[in-house]
Amino acid sequence: MRRQIPLALCFIAGLFMAVQYFIPHPTVQDTYEIVLGWLQTLLAFAFLLGTVSLIRMHFHKIRNRADDRAFSWVTLLGLVSMIGLGFLHPQHQLPGSPFNLMFLNVQVPIEATMFSLLAFYIASAAFRAFRARTLEATLLLVAACIVMLGRVPIGDLIHESIPAATQWILNVPNLAAKRGVMIGVGLGMMATSLKIILGIERAWMGGSD
Amino acid sequence: MNVFEKMLSIDRRWIFLAIGIAVIVPFFFPLGLPVVVTPPVESLYDAVDEIHPNDAPLLLSIDYAPATLPELEPMAMAILRHAFEKDVNVVVMTLHPAGYGLAERAMLDAAEEMGQEYGTDYCFLGFQPGTSAVILGMGVNIATVFPEDAYGTPLAEIPMMEGVRNYDDIPLVISLAGWSAAEAWVYYAYQPFGQAVGAGVTAVMATDFYPYLSSNQLVGLLGGMRGAAEYEMKIDNPDKGVQGMDSQSIIHIMIIILIVAGNIAYFGARRRKKLEEAEAA
User: Would the CB atoms of A152 and B252 count as touching at under 8 Å?
Assistant: First the structure.
């Protein structure tokens, strides 16, 4: 029963969500609306699960006196202080609240800084790793240079054909490759969904099968 | 050590320094490079421009996090300025938990600048978890997904939301995202409900969206800071997007030079090594 009930629920829910799309009857659509509400509630629990998992991981690191436990302290302090600010301030969502100020003045600059470091590493990697060793690598390299030039105003100034070549690369070879990948992924998703709905694929229930 | 080997062993901190200077200097000494508007941006601009003033609202989903803020916030500001200038009502929301504060900031800054009033010209729905469920649910009834706005006012009490029930009452959705949210809008709003969707995404993601653009599943696309700059040019209000284009132009040129120099050094060193081995043999 421990296996049959989840499998039956999965089959009914999967079949209903697929079939409701083709049945405009009010009863079906009302049920669909209720199911969407449940789905949203279930997905909200993912945040809770993530938070608990994060706390457990860092708590274990601190308890086991791991070498990098200082970072775990920072993570947990950040988590607790932001949750605390959220709960303590009755209107934490309003502009100018301590929660909002911490977010805009601490989290935003930190995340933006981390992401902007990529520019430095990309430049260094471009010099050290981007080699025209094979025909494919050379094609990729040439296409990348054209697109890089065509996506900035200086490309228009160098030659008027550069933006046109960029648009061609994006609209023809890029589009063809992306469509092929997307169709493949779509078919794969359909096959996997069918396998889950029909109970052939059972890894989501845990265990080895 | 020959010249090629010296080039290959250059300390990468010199590259970092050069990149840093190239990014910062144009902010103090702008080059004023001209920005040409491309068709995907033109289409999105036209779609916003065609929305009737003080009528059905534009839904702007500000789905970015702080990491992609420099590329995507200029897009949000440009679109909001355009809509407010045309007296188009705007509903702002986010599908990213970290997008709440950023969406609110962009919305309030643009509204204050353009003299717009909350509740009659724009409103903020805030964040709800569950991307696909939120988008699908809004297609049935927005009030079931967002019973009240971000500040606790029931949607029924917000004047501009009167008569706005679902996507039938929204002429255009624009998602600004540094992750798969913009694709989710295509999958769950365009496909089942026929909702017109536009997108603004980071430059590295832009190539992924050309299939949707080509099949008219997207009405328009802003790709990276260049997309924001083009939109700013369209509304005749150059700001951070246009300002960033000078730095980006120089950085792209530098990266191309680094690629070429790296290849010259690599193949030069390899050739020299082969010659030395042949001589030794």
Answer: yes
Q: Is A53 exposed, middle or buried (0-12, 13-18, 19+ CB in 10 A)?
A: exposed
Set of chain B residues whose Cβ sits within 8 Å of the Cβ of A94: 151
Is the CB of B38 less than 8 angstroms away from the CB of A178?
no
> What is the rounded CA–CA span in Å between residue B247 and residue B28?
11
pLDDT value of position A130: 86
> Which letter does DSSP use for residue B89 in this model?
-
Residues of chain B with pLDDT under 50: none
SS3 (DSSP) at B122: strand
| Statement: residue A71 has pLDDT above 90 | yes
The one-letter amino acid code at B39 reads P
pLDDT for residue A24: 83
3-state secondary structure of A28: helix
Structure ipTM over 0.90, yes or no: no
Closest CA to B40 of B170, B231, B241, B246: B231
Whole-number Å distance between alpha carbons of B267 and B49: 53
φ and ψ at residue B24, rounded to 5 degrees: -75, -45
Out of B98, B245, B252, name the one closest to residue A149 (CB).
B252
How large is the angle between the packed helices A26-63 and B131-140, nearest 10 degrees? 160
Mutant choice from B37, B180, B210, B213 vs A, greatest count of A C-beta within 10 A:
B210
Instruction: Please answer yes or no on whether B210 and A175 come within 8 Å at the CB atom.
Output: yes
- Non-local (6+) Cβ contacts of B51 within 8 A are B58, B83, B86, B88, B171, B172
Flag if A95 and B108 touch (Cβ within 8 Å): yes
Could you tell me the CA-to-CA distances from B208 to A53, A165, B43, B223 in Å, in that order? 32, 18, 18, 10
- Which pairs count as long-range contacts for B207-213, CB under 8 Å and 24+ apart, including other chains? B207/A170, B207/A174, B207/A178, B208/A178, B208/B183, B209/B182, B209/B183, B210/A170, B210/A171, B210/A174, B210/A175, B210/A178, B211/A175, B211/A178, B211/A179, B211/A182, B212/B183, B212/B186, B213/B40
pLDDT over 60 (residue A209) = no
Could you give the angle at which helices B224-234 and B69-85 cross, rounded to 10 degrees?
Answer: 20
| Candidate from B68, B100, B210 with C-beta closest to A174 | B210
- Rounded Cα distance between A102 and A79, Å, is 12
Rounded Cα distance between B28 and A23, Å, is 61
Write out pLDDT tens, residues B182-217. Answer: 999 999 999 989 999 999 999 989 989 999 998 999
Q: What is the DSSP secondary structure assignment for residue A104, as one 8-state letter? A: I
- pLDDT at residue A207 tops 70: no
B60 has which bridge partners?
Answer: B92, B174
How many Cα neighbours within 13 Å face the side chain of B209? 33
Whether B140 and A36 have beta carbons less than 8 Å apart is answered as yes
